[in-house]
Design goal:
Length: about 600
Amino acid sequence: MKRKSLISAFALLCLSVNISNSVLAQDIKIESTKTPPEALDTNFKALLDELHRSLKLLRLPGHEAPYFLAYNLYESLDFSVEGVLGAITTRSGKKDRSLYPIVRVGSYKLDNTNFDSTDYAEVSSTRSDTTPIDENYMALRKSVWLSTDLKYKQAVKYLDEKKALMLERNVNSALDDFSPAPAFNLINPARSMNLNKDLWTDKVRELSSVFLEFPMLRNSWVRFDERVLNLWLVNSESTIARNGEVSARYQAFASIQTKEGEVISDGLEALARDENNLPSVDQMKVELRDLGKRLTQIVQAPQGEDYDGPVLFEGQAAAEFLASTLAPNIVAKRDHLSNFSNTAVSTNPLGRKMNKRIMPTFLSLIDDPYLRVWKGKQLFGGFEIDEEGVQPQKIDIVQKGELKAFCSGRTPTKFTKTTNGHGVISDDTAQNSVLLLTSTKTNSNKDLLKMLRRLGEESGLSYVIVVRRMDNTQREAFSSDDLNGTYLLSSTSSTSINLPSPILVFKVDTRSGKEEQIRGVKFAPTNIRVLKDIVAAGNDTDAYAVEQTSNNYAHLVTPSLLVRDIEMVKSEAPSQKPPVTPSPLMSIQK
């Protein structure tokens, strides 16, 4: 589980804040910090008091005391309402608190982490289940005490197991298990939820009724969510942080079924840092009608055939292309020493590409956790502090086509020794933030289409492909209505990449330039080398929200991209016969 699933239900929305760096006294005494006393609320006092006590007293006879302790306390306030065809189907809200204690025994060089014990149930348990939702000093201290005690005993056990396995296998790792980080002080106010829930319920009811205008749809829904997320973080290196974030979302989904039984689905998201920055009801109605029209037109399009040739990814499709190929592989990963005999080695296809060309020389990629707005759009994915208590850095990932860096946390890997503030706490890996792809050479859409057709003619093709919209892997995998959405073309290669399904696909005649919409095609598995096949970029750079894990978004800023060669195949996914009788909505069609 990565930061995205710990910190936000659907995005990491960090507010612009004034950051003051303060090196706290090494013992983190409250009275000796440069943090104003009034900022140290009940949660801080409970966490810090128990941190001091654990550092002083926590030690089993014959074993080492912890060399590093950290506590991440998350408080979430959630509200969600969903409607179907003008009726509310679900409405829920809750408050939750989660405490994640980090206990490391040994030293920065060798500790209890980066190791998979056979006792998987204990290893996977990182969260305290006794965290009170009330702000109560003694109740929180008791939760911290019990969870720290459990984690310390587990850490001692795992370190002993790890040392024994290293002796047995004659392992002498050249990598340290953890890297030090400077103390970081970030104190922002905790946030609260101020929401007219009945008003948003009425809006969802009104918006979901728009789909009554499209009786051919198989399924549809509209949802509004708001989440307030507050973080308190302290560690034994004198870092202390509190941050409050608010995020709001409209989400819609619709699907339609062809006469052959194929289900085609699409959706939309409107994201903002607070409810007031979401589109108006009238604006959303326009978007929803476009969604309904899009699906109604797709089902009438002819089915495509197998294809191998150039593809132009326009706009949102370019973002999904990069989100599937590049984004997952710019994160530093480390294989664990394992007690399991069948543990597979995770292979990053970019692992041995440092300082080598992975893209055309006219392209560069930046990871910018402080990028908040692009062309008036509020961006998701940035953060002021990572889960490991480190201030994030802006990173030049790719420079003139060459890979120069990975997003890294505090766990050293073969390719990263120190953190750049992109760490997560649950699996010793890292995450990207907002990604910005830039090009030194740009082309108009008209010129890109000319180049596309020319490439097709050179390959002897009668038509070429333009993809203007793609699904995302999360919606494909988790949509309960998409009967064939979980279908992915299989491959035995651990480095193969499965692109999400194209939604808006057009075949373009190489001679006349005439466009025809098609459906029913998928991308064949590809690999990271496809990035080298990018031959041109557009002048239409924009920001697109991509769903990296279920219900968690980060923005990717990119132009349209022309790729020299990609294979597409006619979809042969399992399908289900359409309903025997027509939808009852057909009876109200005008």
